[in-house]
Write a structure and sequence with these properties.
7-stranded antiparallel beta sheet, 6 helices, 266 residues, 11 strands, alpha+beta, 4-stranded mixed beta sheet
Length: 266
Amino acid sequence: MIEHLFVRAAPPLLMMCLAACAASSPTADPGGQPSGSLRLHTEEPPPSPTARAVPELVATPAPMQSIFTISMPVYRQVMNLDCEAAALQMALASLGHPYSQPALFAEENADPRLPVMNPDGSVKHWGNPYVGFVGNVNGSDLAPTGYGVYYPVIIAVARSHGAPNATGGEGLSPGAVYEALKAGRPVMVWVETGWERVGYPLMGTWTAWDGRPIHYSLIEHTVTLSGVSESQVRVNDPWHAGSQYWISKAAFETSWRDFNNMAVIF
């Protein structure tokens, strides 16, 4: 009878035990870890670096040179009218060939004869500056008793005194002169003293002793160009005490034109 009662009472007791066990059993949390257990820490991989746009490197061109100069000493003419010898002296010195003006002038085949004048004060006959210096180098240009010399004589003297590549003539373009200066080549040019302009009878044409017509300006002058910029040329001028200065291309070209763009490029 006792055994029978135990058996009948067992089911309710068993149910209570099962219920208690169920209440104490761990349950899974939403993250998948059992409730009440240690959580496992999983490190996430570091984020990939964000690619940055690299700016395109563009080469910046060097600024264009706009001023060109040639190292050249300044000499004054030591005789009244030897501007050609003085200008040549400066050009040769810039190339490393020092000479005195008297030594250079001695190579210019001077013809000291005086001119034959017309009644109106213009020159009728005189020497030929294409073959030698005309008149007295210590004379006066306006009297006139002395004049000067032109490019063929200067080229010959230059070539025999250290500048074998000297060239020149008449009718040269301004561009040819400016490009020569940019390349470091001095340029002798025939212009008028003080950049003045004169007319007849101080400017005209005489007939040389050998019959050649000679275009002249009695204020004929020679300088050496030693630099160039966009709008100017630099002048080594032997007149008076000798000087170096810049003058506008327009003023230079106007005076230069009176001598048919005569020049010697070294």
